[in-house]
Design a protein that fits this description.
Layout (H helix, E strand, L loop, with lengths): L3 H14 L5 H17 L4 H17 L8 H16 L14 E6 L6 H14 L4 E6 L6 H8 L7 E2 L6 H14 L4 E6 L6 H15 L3 E7 L6 H11 L4 E5 L7 H10 L4 E5 L7 E3 L2 H9 L1 H27 L5 H14 L2 H7 L13 H16 L3 H5 L6 H11 L3 H21 L3 H5 L5
Parallel strand pairs: 1-4, 1-5, 2-3, 2-4, 5-6, 6-7
Antiparallel strand pairs: 7-8
Helix pairs in contact: 1-2, 2-3, 3-4, 4-11, 4-12, 5-6, 7-8, 9-10, 11-12, 13-15, 15-17, 17-18
The structure holds guanosine-5'-triphosphate (GTP) and magnesium ion.
């Protein structure tokens, strides 16, 4: 069966070679992505959500100047896939010494392997790392760990015949007093139901109070991983998640998206049986590789630059006081989208810029809406040159927009005032440049 990556790439490459980027081409791309995600066992609801978002953005958002619609759509697909996986990259946070990480999970998910991999990973980052084998069920569990870590100078603590909590406590004590930075605890997963597992985890958690509980989930179960993550998250709020065997199944995408959906933190993904086959989870990097990062990266970079240029060029125009009435109101709307209006406007170094900070937030928003309506009742001539507005035109516009005549007059007055102030403010442009206007 083709992998998620192969399916996504082929959908994208069909889109890229399509003769035109019309509705049909976009719909076909979306269908290809849907198919890929469903085969990867991504939840149907999530597939629907991402399809809707891609469709909406592909048709409604304008590509920055110089960027083709095709590239814009590819960027949208990339960003929405990243969003599907939770956007935020995982990070290593060893906040205290020793930092105790306990790995838990049902049988055969890859706990022992992951503990060894993470121990090795952290060791390479320069931490002093030790491992405790608190698995009392699996014969030879400690040997398995020692074998995996052979030659890595990472000690393994185990005690045959003792209780799991005892082993864990003693191991942590010993390694703490020896000055280790990180202590990883491997636990049992054998012959247990999920309820049993949760119970043992709770006992260990109470006794050991690890700084981080790591749930090891086998990604081959696809979207079922979300259920595990949810149950686990309830029992262990300090938890993070490792998804293993991402290399062996096409369903890894389903597992990742389902876990991300629960809001749980995906920390690592396991990508093979060897000690080095682990990576800190980074949605952007992961999606980039799925789609074939090479030329995707250059597309993204070009778009970023184009957007930068647009905003700088625009900012300069604004600084020169070169903007139309329509642009003026549009800017206000844009600024409003960026965050609490009053806070943003108060950052403008110009006193009295359209007098908005003095109004309440809601009043300001209503005013901008009225102004927007006014703009829409104006003719092109009036918009280009508001000085043609006489009282009969003002009356007509006010009626058309459903506002008072004084609203129209106020808008024009504010527009003129703002332009004048902007021109004056050119003398101190550095103050204005801090505010992104695009
Ligand atoms: N391909 C691949 N295999 C993995 C990965 N992680 C673990 N495995 C394999 O999965 C099998 C089980 O791994 P273990 O680490 O023993 O799993 P466990 O959770 O400790 O198992 P129990 O202690 O018996 O519950 C082993 O054969 C590992 O080599 C991975 O990321 N990719
Ligand atoms: Mg094990």
């Amino acid at each position: 069966m083709p992998s998620l990556s192969e399916l996504l790439r082929s959908a994208l490459s069909r889109f890229r070679s399509a003769t035109s980027v019309d509705r049909r081409a976009v719909e076909e791309l979306i269908r290809g992505i849907q198919r890929a995600l469903l085969i990867a066992d991504v939840n149907v609801e999530l597939v629907k959500r991402i399809s809707d978002r891609i469709r909406e953005r592909a048709f409604l958002e304008r590509a920055p100047p110089g960027i083709s619609r095709r590239d814009h759509v590819i960027r949208v697909v990339y960003e929405e896939l990243v969003r599907l996986l939770g956007e935020k990259p995982a990070e290593i946070k060893i906040e205290k010494k020793p930092y105790v990480i306990m790995a838990v999970g049902i049988q055969g998910t890859g706990k022992t392997t992951s503990v060894a991999k993470i121990a090795n990973y952290l060791k390479k980052l320069g931490y002093r790392v030790a491992v405790v084998c608190a698995d009392t069920y699996r014969p030879g569990a400690a040997d398995q760990l020692r074998q995996l870590l052979d030659g890595r100078e990472i000690p393994v603590y185990h005690e045959a015949g003792a209780d799991a909590a005892d082993i864990a406590r003693k191991g942590v004590e010993r390694f703490s007093s020896n000055g280790y930075d990180v202590i990883l605890i491997d636990t049992a997963g054998r012959h247990r139901s999920q309820e049993d597992l949760m119970r043992e985890m709770e006992v260990l958690q109470r006794e050991i109070k690890p700084d981080e509980v790591m749930l090891i989930v086998d990604a081959t179960i696809g979207q079922m991983a979300g259920e595990h993550a949810k149950a686990f998250h309830k029992a262990a709020p300090v938890g993070s998640i490792v998804l293993t065997k991402m290399d062996t199944s096409a369903r890894g995408g389903g597992a990742l998206s389902a876990v991300a959906e629960t809001g749980a933190r995906i920390k690592f993904i396991g990508t093979g049986e060897k000690l080095e086959d682990i990576e800190l989870f980074n949605p952007r990097g992961y999606v980039g590789r799925l789609l074939g990062i090479g030329d995707l990266e250059s597309i993204l970079e070009r778009i970023r630059l184009a957007e930068l240029e647009v905003s700088e060029e625009k900012a300069k125009q604004l600084l020169r006081g070169e903007f139309t009435l329509e642009e003026f109101v549009k800017q206000l709307k844009e600024v409003r989208k960026m965050g609490p209006l009053s806070k943003l406007l108060s950052r403008l170094p110009i006193p009295g810029l359209p007098d908005l900070p003095q109004d309440s937030l809601r009043e300001a928003e209503e005013k901008i809406e009225r102004w927007w309506a006014i703009i829409h009742s104006m003719t092109a001539e009036e918009k280009a040159d508001p000085s043609v507005l006489n009282s009969s035109r003002i009356r007509r516009i006010a009626r058309g927009a459903g506002v008072m005549e004084r609203d129209v007059k106020e808008l024009v007055k504010q527009y003129k005032l703002t332009r004048k102030l902007m021109k004056r403010a050119r003398k101190a442009p550095h103050k204005l440049m801090g505010l992104r206007m695009s």
